[in-house]
Design brief:
2 copies of one chain form a homodimer.
Chain A: H1 17-29, E1 35-42, E2 52-53, H2 57-65, H3 71-76, H4 83-90, E3 97-100, E4 106-107, E5 114-119, H5 120-125, H6 127-150, E6 156-158, H7 166-178, E7 183-184, H8 187-193, H9 203-208, H10 212-223, E8 228-230, H11 236-247, E9 253-256, H12 261-274, E10 281-284, H13 290-295, E11 303-306, H14 308-311, E12 321-329, E13 335-337, E14 352-358, E15 364-371, E16 382-383, E17 386-390, E18 393-394, H15 400-412, E19 430-432
Helix pairs in contact in A: 2-6, 6-7, 7-8, 10-11, 11-12
């Protein structure tokens, strides 16, 4: 069997060149061992968004665990760093501590999503892969959450694999599930993460057969009456009639993939009802985003299949998270705050703590960030940083369903304005204490 | 060593659920073996773009080669398809033919980028993974090509790994290289594809040290005077002075990562020249896209580091390519054209051929597409479909440098208007013959 890439088991090369050369220079200078605190955080929300969703935590923990330099990986670094650095890397295993927002949790500007404490050498090496995972997965989850909000209780199905990188597709399906999607079309996401998978059929299946009737009979014979028939290859009205004739009134669903979905859904619902197929559902697909989903709220639609706009973050394909050194060991051995002074890219030095301030009725009121010390819980608040890695050991693993449940609960705490699809400010303010 | 995902060697699960259930239904109906022609093509260019760039061809060929169902993969499909289908998949190996545009080639609306001829069963299974690879890699290459055009002869360096999925990052670095980028920060792209890698240093490296001078001395001692010093952590003028003091007038380069890059570049160039460091280059980074690069054309900049906008396709993170059945075996055993009839998603049935019509002076004039038969070369034209897979054997492998050279040559054929960064129509028309 052909091997697509030979270092799939290690994540160590999913890394920027300069992380390794900084390591080399710091090792030579004797500063690589200085205790350091790095923070992964957003400077802002994507323009117009009311909140963001943290996703990728579980994947990031696996990436830390798999960040090892085996002989193949070391050989690949020949010419990048010197021999002493290669020797240091051969023994590398992350031995520090990581705290972070749990998966599915919401975020706001400056939320300290990850706090990594280790030697500079160990912490800097993780920068690229942690940012890659968080920036991608959280962008998808943040878009997905708006879609499931817009859909109300109706199920959303992730179908975007073909519109994004083949491995990003698997992570996107996972992130969408965290943010409330019911299922995915992606089989690798089913296999790796247990996300329920589902599917209908494509126009090619209808076109393969001599008649639409032959195609429908083949599908129903194989997949049962509960299947979803695609009814817009030729004429929708004729296809709906035919579908009920072939499968009977217990036909599972029909799928509409083109045209004015709102108008068609009304027509098809009336037709299905008149044929006695009152329980047959109507699934719509075709370049949906959260706005299109919201616009269909009054239409008799039973489910949404979402592709391109989900996997590309609905206009915001990356979160813009950064990973900054906020404190490091000084010459006195104590941690000291550090921060860059550039005008347009301000960072706030010092180790951060965070809680979600809530009213006595449990409504979120503010993202409270403490610098150097933890903010005080007023009694109804929720602490946001949890231990993820302790002395190099992964302690933050959890089932994906826990992240999904957490997301639903955290979103339910938000003020009502969070449900608006219109552009606006963050729904709660970020407050430094 | 931890395993990040257990089916990395097979691409068969990077697939939509419905490809498998369509297979099951077609096998049961006796139609799975019908000879079929699928075509992968764009309905249009991204809004405002003058041309697109084909990338991912080499990756797609490896994905076809690795599309096998080993025992782990088959076990993962338990509950998705029935036993007879699992039995059929166990022996699966693509045995058909594929023709396509070579990597680095340009594309226009309806260009037949891939033509896949095989049984329906074999061809339909490849749909999702082929689209994933082409849609992602071509989106990045299309953005990258505009950036290298805007940069004129100045080098562009790909630095976007942290802003996209960790595996998409590797493919993005590869695609950018095809479209003229000089190097990448991504070490896995160096390892897997031989893309040159490079790096400077981060603000964290400066902040780790007690003074900027200590940081600069550490970097120069380890990486040599030819290194690139990051000069905007505190005060740019002081850092440039210090950099030349530490490394001497043969300092390789300085990097500016914030502020008004055009103004700063002029100031820093004057300062470097006045210090006698006339050969020290100025590298700029910080949310660059093709428009920002073009705006810096008159500034004394020696290289561009591009991140977010490159890996997210500069506003167009996916190409919208589709994969459609255009012909299949009829009851008479002959291939017949087929096409969906939906109003807003028209496909054109029939097998396609394509050539780039050129003037006697070698300037591209039209994308000529033949339906059913190849268009006639007027003497100065270029045929665009090349054999990629023959009877299941990959015949289209080539070094990445060939794709890079092809891209440069194909872009040089375009009319001058292709160089405009303003929104416009495709720079040559698509003509059906």
């Amino acid at each position: 069997m052909a091997t697509v890439h030979s270092t799939a088991d290690s994540t160590a090369l999913l890394t920027d060149h300069y992380e390794l050369t900084m390591l080399e220079a710091a090792l030579a200078a004797g500063t690589a061992g200085r205790r350091s605190v790095f923070e992964l955080f957003p400077r802002r929300l994507p323009e117009g968004r009311r909140y963001g969703v943290v996703a990728g935590v579980g994947r990031a923990l696996e990436a830390i665990d798999a960040f090892r330099f085996d002989s193949d990986t070391l050989a690949a670094l020949d010419g990048v760093v010197d021999e002493p650095t290669l020797g240091w890397l051969a023994d590398f295993r992350f031995s520090g501590d990581v705290w972070g927002y749990a998966e599915g949790e919401l975020y706001f500007p400056h939320s300290p999503l990850l706090v990594v404490e280790a030697s500079f050498a160990e912490a800097v090496l993780l920068e690229t892969v942690l940012l890659s995972i968080y920036n991608h997965d959280s962008a998808v989850a943040s878009a997905a959450s708006r879609m499931t909000l817009a859909a109300g209780g109706r199920p959303c199905i992730e179908m975007g694999s073909r519109r994004t990188h083949e491995e990003a597709a698997v992570a996107a399906a996972r992130a969408a599930y965290v943010a409330g999607f019911e299922a995915t079309s992606n089989l690798a996401a089913r296999h790796r993460y247990g996300v329920p998978s589902t599917g209908t059929s494509a126009h090619s299946f209808t076109l393969l057969h001599d008649t639409e009737e032959q195609a429908f009979r083949a599908q129903v014979a194989s997949l049962g009456k509960g299947t979803t028939l695609l009814v817009d290859t030729y004429d929708v009205t004729e296809a709906v009639r035919l579908g009920v004739e072939v499968a009977g009134t217990s036909l599972g669903a029909v799928r509409l993939d083109s045209g004015d979905l709102g108008v068609l859904a009304v027509q098809v619902r009336e037709q299905l009802d008149s044929l006695g197929a009152g329980t047959t559902r109507i699934i719509v697909t075709s370049d949906l985003d959260e706005h299109a989903i919201a616009a269909l709220a009054a239409a008799p639609v039973d489910g949404y299949g979402v592709g391109t706009e989900l996997v590309t973050g609905s206009g915001h394909p990356t979160c813009g998270f950064v990973y900054k050194l906020v404190a490091r060991e000084g010459t006195d051995g104590e941690l000291m705050s550090v921060a860059k002074k550039s005008v347009d890219k301000v960072s706030i030095g010092g180790r951060k703590y965070a809680l979600r301030r809530r009213s006595t009725r449990g409504v979120a009121q503010a993202e409270v960030i403490g610098i150097g010390t933890a903010p005080v819980d007023d009694g109804d608040d929720r602490m946001l940083l949890t231990p993820l890695v302790r002395d190099g050991e992964i302690v933050g693993r959890e089932p994906l369903s826990a992240a999904r449940d957490r997301h639903a609960a955290a979103r339910a705490e938000l003020p009502l304005e969070a449900q608006s699809m219109a552009k606006g400010e963050a729904v709660i303010p970020t407050v430094f204490e």
